[in-house]
Amino acid sequence: xxxxxxxxxxxxxxxxxxxxxxxxxxxxxxxxxxxxxxxxxxxxxxxxxxxxxxxxxxxxxxxxxxxxxxxxxxxxxxxxxxxxxxxxxxxxxxxxxxxxxxxxxxxxxxxxxxxxxxxxxxxxxxxx
Amino acid sequence: xxxxxxxxxxxxxxxxxxxxxxxxxxxxxxxxxxxxxxxxxxxxxxxxxxxxxxxxxxxxxxxxxxxxxxxxxxxxxxxxxxxxxxxxxxxxxxxxxxxxxxxxxxxxxxxxxxxxxxxxxxxxxxxxxxxxxxxxxxxxxxxxxxxxxxxxxxxxxxxxxxxxxx
Lengths: 128, 166
Known about the structure:
- The structure holds two protein chains of two kinds.
- Chain A is of the alpha/beta class.
- Chain A contains five helices and five strands.
- Chain A has one domain: Response regulator (Rossmann fold, 3-Layer(aba) Sandwich).
- Helices cover 44% and strands 19% of the residues of chain A.
- Chain A has a five-stranded parallel sheet with strand order 2-1-3-4-5, sandwiched between helices.
- In chain A, α4 links the parallel β4 (81-85) and β5.
- The longest helix of chain A has 16 residues, at 11-26.
- The model of chain A has no long low-confidence stretch (mean pLDDT 91).
- Chain B is α+β, with helices and mostly antiparallel strands.
- Chain B has a single domain (8-165), classed as CheC-like (Chemotaxis protein chec, 3-Layer(aba) Sandwich), CATH 3.40.1550.
- Helices cover 36% and strands 27% of the residues of chain B.
- Chain B has helices at residues 8-23, 67-78, 87-109, 158-165, and strands spanning 29-35, 46-54, 59-65, 117-118, 122-125, 135-142, 145-152.
- In chain B, strands 1, 2, 3, 4, 5, 6 and 7 form a seven-stranded antiparallel sheet that branches.
- In chain B, β6 and β7 form a beta hairpin.
- In chain B, α1 (8-23) crosses α3 and α2 (67-78) packs across α3.
- The longest helix of chain B is centred in the middle third of the chain and has 23 residues, at 87-109.
């Protein structure tokens, strides 16, 4: 079973993302939630995560910090990372791409945006 | 060439419309814009605030939503049927709504070549936090209910916008 880690300090945002994923065929996946980058890194060290979806603006360790930690780690850098952000900002997009983000999705998240992201980066086999 | 934005009233209305239509499926109508006048309504309602940090420290954006409307928003966002939203859910949802509004505002107002940064949302109920400087208050209607969005005067300042572009 694939495990998807959703990181956002807003319970509403986490719930919306999970509902969107369930609607596009991830209902059989296990969902794990974290409220910031520090908590997410703790989970990433102990769990086998297939997809990491993170907010940008969070306390303690934000999305950029989490992305740097994941993509800079030989043990974790194979994990696809989607960043979900309310800030539609080309300069920020360039910065995130230089760190290695796999997909940037602008809020509000929707099933179609997540489906496109998964198909473009991980491939349709993610749903098998 | 980076296009100059429209008036701040237009930008704020556009950002509010986009956020409410996508998040809670509600249309908003611009009612009025006042200077340095706190809303008399919504004193027992819900509020959220977010600091705009970069590219310029414009200050704080605050939104106020009356009680019944906030409950309606939370029910729509979370798909609640037959259960009343909790205070925690309303705080979280209003923070998320304002986060989306501020994201849109920054995109509409700022130079896209600069990195935008906003603070974490802070939510509360009752009296809104005192404003630290001059501000404008944008009043919009959702049905017959009033939503107020307070933005610092500097956010309207075209000179700051021109400086940021240069």
